[in-house]
Amino acid sequence: MRIVIIGAGRLASCLAPALRRGGAVVAQVWSRSEASARALASSVGCDAAWGQLEAVLPGADVYLICVRDDAIADVARRLRAVVGSHGVLAHTSGSTSLADIAVTPADAAGVFYPLQSFTRGRDIDFSQVHFFIEATTADAAHRLEALAAAVARPDHVHRLATPERRRMHLAAVFVSNFVNHCCALADDILRPTGVGFDVMRPLLAETVAKLQHLTPGEAQTGPALRWDEGVLAAHSALLADAPLTQHIYALLSESIHTHHETSSQ
Predict the structure, then answer these.
(1) pLDDT category, 263, cuts 50, 70, 90?
(2) Is the pLDDT of residue 105 over 80?
(3) Cβ(40)–Cβ(147) under 8 Å?
(4) What letter would DSSP give residue 59?
(5) For residues 26 and 60, what is the distance between their CA atoms, to the nearest angstrom?
(6) What is the CA radius of gyration of the chain?
(7) Residue 168 is inside which H or E element, if any?
(8) What is the pLDDT of residues 55-81, one digit of tens each?
(9) 99: helix, coil or strand?
(10) Is 160 left (phi over 0), alpha (psi -120 to 50) or beta?
(11) Average of per-residue pLDDT values in the chain
């Protein structure tokens, strides 16, 4: 299967080598930046294109759009003439509708969404990643499922419609982005002590490890769960010089306690 990747950012930089290792032929990488296109194309041994989308290679089986969500619809519209009737045009977004890239009902279009956080320079074990597929035609769905199966376990490839995928993406923001931000706030809180964030890593690892066996509700601990007002007030006082963090602490504490009380009923 011949693949063209549109974009050379974090997702594309992780996905392109994995697809190649899985047996897909990455025929071309396109980016707005010549340097980015050349760097990623060189790493997977394929053609590089940049600038105008007219430089994109015609005749591929699948075109994966790995660009910012707010650029997907425009890129798809401009690519349709290049893709033609043979190629499947698919985006990799968790929140963008399939309808945003299907200009007409006859267009072979799809969604190829890997549920993972991507950081440039970090290797991802795609065998552990779940892929969510949506498509306008049966053939497009089969191609995208086959492409996902080249890098993921067969039982990690699922079909999911846009409304459910958007809800899943929202859940992923809580699990990944918000958790990471809480770690960043913890790092800020620790800074005056002279103690580095490294001391938190075993605690973070155990928190994640528990979720392999327990539900999040079962794994929850802390002063907010038992509503220890003395501890909560003392923590809040320590955050007096960081009102936004103080507000976040209060909201999360209230949410933890309310969630626990509601779940226990």
Answers:
(1) confident
(2) no
(3) no
(4) S
(5) 9
(6) 22
(7) helix 162-172
(8) 999 999 999 999 999 999 999 999 988
(9) helix
(10) beta
(11) 95
| 3-class DSSP assignment, residue 79 | helix
**Is 1.10.1040.20 the CATH number for 166-264?**
yes
Question: Three-state DSSP class for 212?
Answer: coil
Same fold for the domain at 2-160 and the one at 166-264? no
Is 2-160 CATH 3.40.50.720?
Answer: yes
Do residues 69 and 88 make contact, with C-beta atoms less than 8 angstroms apart?
Answer: no
Burial class (CB in 10 A: 0-12, 13-18, 19+), 65: buried
Confidence at 136, pLDDT banded by 50, 70, 90: very high
Across 188-209, average pLDDT = 96
Give the pairing of strands 130-135 and 109-115.
antiparallel
Tokens representing 174 are 């809580």
**Residues 110 and 141: beta-carbon distance below 8 Å:** yes
